């Protein structure tokens, strides 16, 4: 299941909570463009969709790329660190 994959990559469901809106749960989307993989954090709050570009990730697997993207989101203070 996709949410299980996201939970595992983030280090737990509680680490997917968006810092600016504790009711919103984020998800990382990976997109291939120009032979590179780019990550974006997306969430919905009050029926509005939000996203933040996280940058390029270059791990060997989807799981590792998701984990790297969640680390970027955490380092930027976009998600809860608890």
Secondary-structure blueprint of this entry?
Layout: H1 2-10, E1 17-18, E2 21-25, E3 27-33, E4 36-45, E5 48-57, H2 62-75
Antiparallel strand pairs: 1-2, 3-4, 4-5
Helix pairs in contact: 1-2
Short account of what is shown:
This protein is an alpha+beta fold. It has helices spanning about 1-10, 60-75, and strands at about 15-20, 20-25, 25-35, 35-45, 50-55.
Q: What is the strand arrangement across the widest sheet?
A: 3-4-5
Q: Which consecutive residue ranges, at least 5 long each, have pLDDT under 50?
A: none
Number of strands: 5
Rg over CA atoms, rounded to whole Å, is 12 Å
Strand content: 35-45%
SS content category: alpha+beta
Approximate shape: globular
Could you spell the SSE succession in H and E letters?
HEEEEEH
Largest β sheet strand count, sense and barrel closure? 3 strands, antiparallel
End-to-end separation = 23 Å
Q: Into how many domains do the coordinates divide?
A: 1
Q: How many helices? A: 2
């Amino acid at each position: 299941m996709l949410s299980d994959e996201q939970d595992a990559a983030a280090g737990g469901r509680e680490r997917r909570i968006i810092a600016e809106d504790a009711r919103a749960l984020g998800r990382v989307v990976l997109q291939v463009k120009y032979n590179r993989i780019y990550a974006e954090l997306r969430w919905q709050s009050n029926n509005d969709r939000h996203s933040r570009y996280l940058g390029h990730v270059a791990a060997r697997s989807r799981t590792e790329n998701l984990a790297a993207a969640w680390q970027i989101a955490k380092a930027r203070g976009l998600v809860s660190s608890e």
